[in-house]
Amino acid sequence: xxxxxxxxxxxxxxxxxxxxxxxxxxxxxxxxxxxxxxxxxxxxxxxxxxxxxxxxxxxxxxxxxxxxxxxxxxxxxxxxxxxxxxxxxxxxxxxxxxxxxxxxxxxxxxxxxxxxxxxxxxxxxxxxxxxxxxxxxxxxxxxxxxxxxxxxxxxxxxxxxxxxxxxxxxxxxxxxxxxxxxxxxxxxxxxxxxxxxxxxxxxxxxxxxxxxxxxxxxxxxxxxxxxxxxxxxxxxxxxxxxxxxxxxxxxxxxxxxxxxxxxxxxxxxxxxxxxxxxxxxxxxxxxxxx
Length: 290
What we know:
Elements: H1 2-31, H2 39-56, H3 61-87, H4 92-114, E1 129-132, E2 135-138, H5 139-161, H6 163-173, H7 175-180, H8 185-208, H9 218-232, H10 237-257, H11 265-277, H12 284-289
Antiparallel strand pairs: 1-2
Helix pairs in contact: 1-5, 1-8, 1-9, 1-10, 2-3, 2-4, 2-8, 2-9, 3-8, 5-6, 5-8, 6-8, 9-10, 9-11
């Protein structure tokens, strides 16, 4: 039983990062209808930028988080206005090809700059163990999970309680009606893409402080994020959180009791089960109303 609780705790930790990363994708994929295959590269850039700021420049961890969020949000805004906007009304295929090309460009540019070696973000505290009954966690893991929860709550409040959030929801429900009401939909789309990019980058920096980050991680992260979005339902905020935690716990349990070599297969099995019994995701009804 103690071993099961430890695996459950490990799954919640990694599931929190899956949820935070998938939130950015569910905004872009589920609400903007842009299939963003460069999402994993934004995650990777956040981790590498956090490593550069905290290790090379010597900034403290929380200042690095703020700089990563602002920098990557600005990058997301520019990418939407210069690239995504040009193919927005040309069908999903154009967006897919564009983001695949963007993913390849970012990955190869990062490879030329930092190489293939893994890099670790410097954390704000000594990474000692914390004992919670039979469960053992490290201080950095616990702090990172708390920060993930704070960021998820902040994103929820932004979407539900702010003027920008109301403009986002209005635009995604009916773009034409939103334009007639005076909403500048092009700015809403750019802000949404910026928010999704920043969330992915913050997830990359937080996870990079626990493990490490490297250029090749982008593809795997994109795959996990798409799995989470499919599990929870496209456009569903709650679905991204539940889907991320579900995937993290399932992987931890499988890796602990079956085999660590086959952990990645769990995501595909969950997606197959969801598509068979609930094709639009666990929170599909809420996603459609959103």
